[in-house]
Amino acid sequence: MGSLSYTATVSLDGYVVDADGDFQWSGPDDEVFRFHVERMGPISHEILGRKTYELMRYWYADPDTEDWGPDEREFARRWRDISHIAVSTTLTADALEDPADRLMSSLEEAVLRRIVDEAPGEVEIFGPTTAAAAIRAGMVADFHFFVVPKVVGGGISALPDGVRLDLRLAERRLFGDTVYLHYRPAEGGGA
């Protein structure tokens, strides 16, 4: 049986994307990227919305040039080794990068529970819109936030409106100006 996690890089004011749709301000430095490579170890499934899926296509290729360093190559190897589920009403099956990738038009709670129950490791949801229903249902066991020192003033929030969570800090790390915060639901806490 697996577990469900949600990961987001957020501004100080809680957004993953600014009001213009830009997220370039959230790009990881080398140290944070290396940590992302390490934390992929227990992940067996990745659930992504359309935009995130399309963004992550980059990691399916292994360039023939020397443009990638060891961390990029290892991330790409690990990325290709996990199962991917794209949640989208506009993507088509022939648009998937890998034939093993799955496409779902929506992510129903019962289906997500089955995916997590059958997973041999951690199931990570990447993207606030895709994760919203699972967060509201209290299904997320681990919240991973990478907080960057930017205030963007609006956009897409990392957490859905109206959700109340009682969390406890499980881990924290400082990477230069970026703070990694890992939270778990407190006993009796949840959505």
What can you see in these coordinates?
The protein has 191 residues and is of the alpha/beta class. Helix 1 (30-39) packs parallel to helix 3 (70-81). The model has no long low-confidence stretch (mean pLDDT 93). It has an eight-stranded mixed β-sheet with strand order 5-4-3-6-1-7-10-9. It is globular. The protein contains five helices and ten strands. Strand 9 (167-175) and strand 10 form a beta hairpin. The chain has one domain (3-185): Dihydrofolate Reductase, subunit A (3-Layer(aba) Sandwich). Residues 6-176 form the Bacterial bifunctional deaminase-reductase C-terminal domain. It holds the Pfam family RibD_C. This is Dihydrofolate reductase family protein.
CATH class division:
Alpha Beta
How much is the radius of gyration in Å? 16 Å
Q: Say which CATH homologous superfamily is assigned.
A: Dihydrofolate Reductase, subunit A
What is the structural class?
alpha/beta
How far apart, in Å, are the first and last alpha carbons? 22 Å
Task: Specify the number of helices.
Answer: 5
Number of strands: 10
Q: At CATH's second level, what is the architecture?
A: 3-Layer(aba) Sandwich
Strand count, sense and barrel status of the largest sheet are: 8 strands, mixed
Topology at a glance:
Elements: E1 3-10, E2 15-18, H1 30-39, E3 43-49, H2 50-56, H3 70-81, E4 83-87, E5 102-104, H4 109-118, E6 122-126, H5 128-136, E7 142-147, E8 155-157, E9 167-175, E10 178-185
Parallel strand pairs: 1-6, 1-7, 3-4, 3-6, 4-5
Antiparallel strand pairs: 2-8, 7-10, 9-10
Helix pairs in contact: 1-3
